[in-house]
Amino acid sequence: MIHHLSIPAKNPFHVAKVLTELFDNSYCAPFPSYSGSYVAFAGDKYGTVIEVYPLGTEMLPGKDDKPIQFRHQDTSNPFIATHAAISIPIEREQVEAIAKREQWRCVRCDRGYFEIIEFWIENAVLLELSTPDLAGQYIDALSPDKLAEYFTKANS
User: Fold this and answer.
1) For the purposes of burial, counting CB atoms within 10 Å of the CB of 74, is it exposed (0-12), middle (13-18) or buried (19 or more)?
2) pTM score of the predicted model
3) 69 Cβ contact partners less than 8 Å away, ≥ 6 residues apart
4) CA angle 61-64-70, nearest 5°?
5) 30 forms bridges with which residues in the sheet?
6) From first to last of its 156 residues, what are the pLDDT tens digits of the chain?
7) Which of 55, 112, 49 is nearest to 86 (CA)?
8) Axis-axis angle for helices 92-102, 12-22 (nearest 10)
């Protein structure tokens, strides 16, 4: 179970507010770990959270027994290889309306075994969204039984 993830954004506060809409108007707040960061709380039973850091924030391991350290890199690229697939409680039409308002890319895509909505935060960071009608496809496609069947066939 993944409980939280972090993403970069040009405007962390605004992105965190938009994420709360995807979570069906949950909560966001400043994130005290690093100045200018915000966190969007899904308010679900899993404690799902998305931390939104200013574009250019880097996380570094601390020295000795020190925790994570942060620094800022001014020449950061807004595109990253990290993305997340997230089930959300709102419908496709709501997602599309939010994307249209923000002028962010939003497109329904077929991944072969399931469909998702590609939702591009600031047109740079990918979230693969599963609305209530799509989440079952994903869960079914990656169920333990289906995975065991697939890997048994692939290894024989």
Assistant:
1) exposed
2) 0.89
3) 59, 60, 61, 62
4) 30
5) 38
6) 789 999 999 999 999 999 999 999 799 999 999 999 999 999 999 999 999 999 999 999 999 999 999 999 987 788 888 999 999 999 999 999 999 999 999 999 999 999 999 999 999 999 999 999 999 999 999 899 988 988 888 888
7) 49
8) 160
